[in-house]
Specification:
Helix content is 32%, strand content 5%. It has helices at 6-21, 83-86, 104-123, and strands at 70-72, 75-77. The protein has a two-stranded antiparallel ribbon with strand order 1-2.
Amino acid sequence: MIGMGPRGSYALENLISTLVDHQEAPDVQLLLFEATGNFGNGQVYDTQQTNDNWLNVSERALELQGRKSLIYKGIELPGFPSYHQWADFDQGKASTDIDVYPPRAKLGVYLQERCQSLIEPLAAN
């Protein structure tokens, strides 16, 4: 897969999920590329950028669903929390509360950790 930023990482999750549903499918070998080296977060969500670079989407609107744990060919792939769970964001906050616009780097950490939680068990086997 070329481009393992947020879209590539999401595509990988969907591919693995599909393979889990079709365990009888032949083994698949993956070769992942990411020009920036930032697997999961890419350039836009670089974890090393200044915290002054904010998202233009509020934390309330970041409804990135979690991933259930999966078992593929005997390899246990751990689940990963939704963004709101990971960031300890209280979804029950009143809609009149002031919205927070997190730094791009914060979302980058989430995306990077999520991608690594999928890649590391696969690479170890």
